Structure formats: C-alpha cells, structure tokens
Amino acid sequence: xxxxxxxxxxxxxxxxxxxxxxxxxxxxxxxxxxxxxxxxxxxxxxxxxxxxxxxxxxxxxxxxxxxxxxxxxxxxxxxxxxxxxxxxxxxxxxxxxxxxxxxxxxxxxxxxxxxxxxxxxxxxxxxxxxxxxxxxxxxxxxxxxxxxxxxxxxxxxxxxxxxxxxxxxxxxxxxxxxxxxxx
Length: 183
Prior knowledge:
Helix content is 34%, strand content 11%. The protein has helices at 14-23, 33-37, 47-53, 65-80, 85-94, 130-143; strands at residues 97-103, 115-122, 149-154.
C-alpha cells in the first residue's frame, strides 16, 4: 500500500502494521507551517488564530486586511517594549494612522508630569469612524506607561496634487525702420 519502508520491528503485531499502513498517507499531506506563521503569507481566514497565538490584545473583524496583517507583524515588538513611548508609536503605526506625540516636558507651557498628547491622523485605506478611533485609543491605553495619562486629538489629513501648467504664445516681432523724408 505504501512505498515507505516500515519503521516497526519484526515482532510488531498485525494491528500495529495496519495502523502504520493507514497513517502512512499523512506524510504526503502538505503542511505549510512557515506560511501560516508569516503574517504576509498566512491565509486571511487564519489571521485571527495567528493574532491569538501572538497575544494581540484586541482584534476586530471589520478592520481592513492590511491593518490586521500590520498588527500581527508589529505584535512581538510592541509586546517587548510595552510601557514605552516607542510601543505607543508602533501600536498607532500598526493601525495605519499617523501620530504626533508630545510628552509633558515637550509642551509649551510645560504640561502636567506623566501626561502626553497624541494627534491621530487617519491614513489611506483605513476606516475614519469613531469605532476605529476607539479601537486605536483602547490599544494606546493598553500599551502606554501605566502612570501616564493622555489627551487625544483627532487630526485630519488631506492629500492633493499640485500641477504646473504653462502656456506659451508665439509672437513674431519685426522691426520696421523708416527714413524720414527731407523736404
């Protein structure tokens, strides 16, 4: 039944040999472990399981697939640095939004100690609604230093193009010289 050599000893029972024959086909089943553990190549239907395996704190089915993959990609680095400004920046970046973060000592006048302000600007291809912003804020709450408090400001970004248009008109100039007649 199978071309694979038997691994059982000579004194194996007929039942053990039958089990070996029945399970020999399992080795031919492809198991793409590397693809499943890679956020870029993992099938979309398995992304929630990969997120769970990497201890992502939140997961919403309405997020765009690009955000889901970015969140998984950044999960380990965020978990390593949880409680730092870098983890807050990485968290917000994984949501596909821009961030301007100013800590209390960077504000003019100086803010209250252990506070910071964040201005979020939505990126292209991400939802710009209250639920999505609430998800970002909740994730910032989980990753910020515990003693710190923050003020949230929703920013707006706009992109456009600036074109330069030129027009030219061709003129021909001739110099006409006239000689004044002497009378």
